């Protein structure tokens, strides 16, 4: 039936009842009116956080808020909870020793200076997944169970992303221990179990092998040429010509590029500075690309002086037009390595072109197979030519 104004006015605190006395509404789950021993009445909302903890949010005092106003606040708070938020934690604000505050310190003091090529992704994962779930908890109160539950929720849709979130969390908690924020010798609650060790069980990952084939390339280039935004069109072409990562390409500034020397200065994922060679087609694209006044970035964003941060919407349109709906932006980078492998380029050179860490065998594993395919085809062609000569000579 739900709360009514008359029913609320009739409610009284029962001294013989429980300490916390709440009359719940029948319309909105968890919404109700709390009656205090003093006779004061307040609208409240009981909800469960993404990490599974129960919260009681005070929406406002009865008499200051009407029933309809309180219901509106309850609905708004439930939307926030549905999006992964925690209204109670937001009202309390960050505490010096909670996960939210330490995550900010981790990004500013460690990730930014030591992981220049990937700190933005670290921050995105913390802000999107970790902080909404456990940001309000003290570092010392976070358990492996908390992180296992978060890992499972993310993994239900994106298993690889779930593993990456736990990797960032593990690095963050390692720093908390190293910096004395957690007791020395304490087990890291975000340890991933990959080899039978005790930890959160990692999801299995399969190396992706998708790349743009020679048959698909003409359609894809035609679709890219139809892209109205000249900067996005140029970026997509340069992905295919340079093999750069998304962050390496989009955040570049004109000062990083020497068109005369055909060199592009790039900060790689691990923070190393690399010099990428620019082919003639890549130089031609950059020479024709307009430079936006007052903006140092090669690919300017919408706001003044900013860089282009996302081209996902345009890319979805382009790949659909080309009939390559399953090709991701990262697959364009993989295409560079794949085409080089089938052309007989060594794995060492491919690794250098793509900026793989020295000795990173896993990163070049797919190209090893493609290189074998190229070798097989070359030997078949060689054998056919040899036998043709032999047969011709013996005829």
Sequence-ordered SSE layout with sheet pairings:
Blueprint: H1 5-10, E1 21-24, E2 31-35, E3 41-48, E4 54-61, H2 67-82, H3 87-92, H4 99-114, H5 119-134, H6 144-155, H7 159-178, E5 192-193, E6 200-201, H8 217-225, H9 230-242, H10 246-250, E7 257-258, E8 263-267, E9 273-277, H11 280-288, H12 312-322, H13 329-342, H14 347-354, H15 365-394
Parallel strand pairs: 5-6
Antiparallel strand pairs: 1-2, 2-3, 3-4, 7-8, 8-9
Structural overview:
This protein has 395 residues and is of the alpha+beta class. It is 48% helix and 10% strand. The protein contains 15 helices and nine strands. The strands form three sheets. Strands 1-2-3-4 form a four-stranded antiparallel sheet, covered by helices on one side. The mean pLDDT is 84.
Quote the beta fraction.
Answer: 5-15%
Tell me about the largest β-sheet.
4 strands, antiparallel
Q: How would the global form be characterised?
A: elongated
Count of DSSP helices? 15
Spatial strand arrangement across the major sheet: 1-2-3-4
Uncertain residue segments: none
Structural class: alpha+beta
End-to-end separation: 100 Å
Order of helices and strands: HEEEEHHHHHHEEHHHEEEHHHHH
Helix content: 40-55%
Q: Give the overall pLDDT as a whole number.
A: 84
- The counted number of beta strands is 9
Q: Output the radius of gyration.
A: 29 Å
